[in-house]
Design a protein that fits this description.
By secondary structure, the chain is mainly alpha-helical. It has nine helices and no strands. α1 crosses α2, α2 crosses α3 and α2 packs across α4.
Length: 189
């Protein structure tokens, strides 16, 4: 296992050197290695394929611009993920209608079948609850929404979220607490 980690570190070092010198082959390799990961992260946050594709493109542009500033204090994957999360947050901030559209899109496509209860009334009731939760989540501020989604829906730890968003763990805990409180208020209406 230690050998694999050392191999990954050396691959990352070579890739970072290529990126710093603006080597096109290094950028192609970066895209090959991290493109799908960037897209998956973006779609988890934005919940929309076209927006995730835009985020992928914007992330690659930002990596190209910032390649020379990578100091190697974190793993390359962590640095790239942080850029991806920041791009997604910026997209949400710039496009407030995206948040409400995202909530509607997600709730429209979420269908969980419960084979133990074929009762249509219960199914309709569950869909309504799901719709209300996603709509309320969509009304949270972007910084609270991202933390609540990443922690409660996607299963990221506080530490992982802090690394990806680039703020201290205490800030993430605070955002999670206040995001959940706001979500409770939204659902109480």
């Amino acid at each position: 296992m230690a050998t694999f980690a050392a191999d990954m570190r050396s691959i990352e070092n070579v890739l970072v050197q290529g990126l710093s010198s603006r080597d096109n082959n290094a950028f192609q390799e970066l895209f090959r290695l991290f493109g799908q990961r960037i897209f998956r992260t973006a779609i988890k946050i934005l919940k929309e394929e076209e927006s995730a594709k835009d985020a992928l493109q914007e992330t690659m542009i930002n990596i190209h611009r910032a390649a020379g500033s990578f100091r190697g204090e974190a793993r390359l994957a962590t640095w790239i993920n942080k850029i991806t999360v920041n791009v997604c947050l910026e997209m949400i901030r710039k496009n407030k209608k995206h948040t409400s559209r995202t909530s509607e899109d997600v709730s429209d496509h979420v269908t969980l079948e419960d084979s133990s209860t074929p009762n249509p009334f219960i199914s309709t009731q569950r869909q309504e609850v799901r719709r209300r939760v996603w709509a309320a989540l969509g009304r949270l501020s972007p910084k609270h929404q991202v933390v609540v989604r990443m922690h409660d829906l996607e299963g990221f730890t506080i530490r992982e979220i802090a690394e990806q968003v680039g703020v201290p763990e205490g800030t993430i805990k605070s955002r999670l607490f206040y995001g959940r409180e706001e979500l409770k208020k939204q659902l109480a209406c």
